[in-house]
Amino acid sequence: MSLLISSLAPVFLLIVLGAYLKVMPLTDEAGWRGLERATYYVFFPAMIIMTLAKADLGTVPVVAMGLSLIAAILAMTVILLVLRPVLAGSLGMDGPAFTSVFQGATRWNSFVAIATAGSLYGQLGLTLTAISVAAMIPLLNVLAVVMLQRHAQGKPIVLGPTLKALISNPFIWSSVIGIVINLSGLKLPMIAMRFGDILGAAALGTGLLLVGAGLDVKAAMRPRAITWITTGLKLALMPAMVAAIAMALGVDGVTLKVAILSAAMPTASGSYILARQMGGDAPLMAEILTVQTLIAVVTIPLVLSLAG
Questions:
Q1: Which one, of 162, 154, 152, 136, lies nearest residue 100 by Cα?
Q2: DSSP, res 105
Q3: Tens of pLDDT, residues 6-52
């Protein structure tokens, strides 16, 4: 446990630093948004491309790991749809609020996941987390957009916005590029590899600072019951389901730990932006996001220690 905490401490210290810098008069909101776009569209895609391009995918159970994560997401989706009328009746949850609960219980913060896996397991951890990105992000984006269309906007499911969300997502196209380079056997020039490595190195620090800057502590001072329920589903039930499915598929070792780690992450920072853009309950989303990120400081080491 002490080794886990010492490995995870720098990750969460960077998040705290981001929250502190946000309230300091160093830059304005436009500056943070510019850093967010650079990290989202340049630094992280570069890291994912280089990680997947150089990975020895034949040494890890890519299919079994990917299937365990996808199966857990689909299982959680079914659970949430079954719980929806219960939560609506007992807690007054409306359609927009349900979409925030859905995003809070299924999506994951890949910034924190990649930094944590790299800190704990080195290059292998980065490779396995990149595989998690390739497996989870397309499905999660489709499901999030569909739920917002159906339950927040009250519209029938429209293919156009869903496809646009997929095509424009940098984690998706960077995963495709990295895998294509890997499987094709293409040897990148040394200059290109160094360029990509340097860009990717900027991703971890800026990504974690942005997580901290995006926290809304005031929104999380008095969490609602629905926030606690969503947090329990995401930080406890989701990793438990991934662990059970992955072990049933024969996944073990570091691969199992990274799969569980990916599932144990708090929800994605981008969930708030999507909720705001598509009519979800943005204040509830901010509350869920902040509470989960703060609670994850305790739950991630606990989940990983239980995983052995």
A1: 152
A2: H
A3: 778 888 899 889 989 998 888 888 899 899 889 988 998 998 899 88
Q: Specify burial of residue 103 (Cβ count, 10 A radius: 0-12, 13-18, 19+).
A: buried
Nearest CA among 218, 236, 217, 240 for reference residue 228: 236
Tokens for 185, please give them.
């056997």
List helix spans (H) across the chain: 2-23, 29-38, 44-54, 62-91, 95-106, 110-147, 159-168, 170-184, 190-213, 225-232, 238-248, 253-263, 270-278, 282-306
CA distance 233 to 103: 11
What is the distance between the alpha carbons of residues 287 and 104, in angstroms, rounded to a whole number? 10
Question: 126 or 59: whose pLDDT is higher?
Answer: 126
Specify burial of residue 66 (Cβ count, 10 A radius: 0-12, 13-18, 19+).
middle
Q: Which residues contact 179 (CB under 8 A, 6 or more apart)?
A: 52, 134
- CA 32 – CA 303 distance, rounded (Å): 32
At 67, phi and psi to the nearest 5?
-65, -40
- Of 4, 118, 144, which Cα lies nearest the Cα of 50? 118
pLDDT in tens, 282-296: 899 989 999 999 899
Better-predicted residue by pLDDT, 65 or 4:
65
CB proximity list for 308: less than 8 A, separation 6 or greater: 257
CA distance 304 to 284: 28
Q: Calculate the alpha carbon distances from 268 to 55, 167, 168, 277 in Å.
A: 25, 18, 17, 15
Find all residues with CB under 8 Å of 81, minimum gap 6, and list them.
Answer: none
Please state, in angstroms and rounded to a whole number, the distance separating the CA atoms of residues 128 and 297.
21
Backbone angles phi, psi at 107, to 5 degrees: -75, 160
| 51 touches 178 (CB < 8 A) | yes
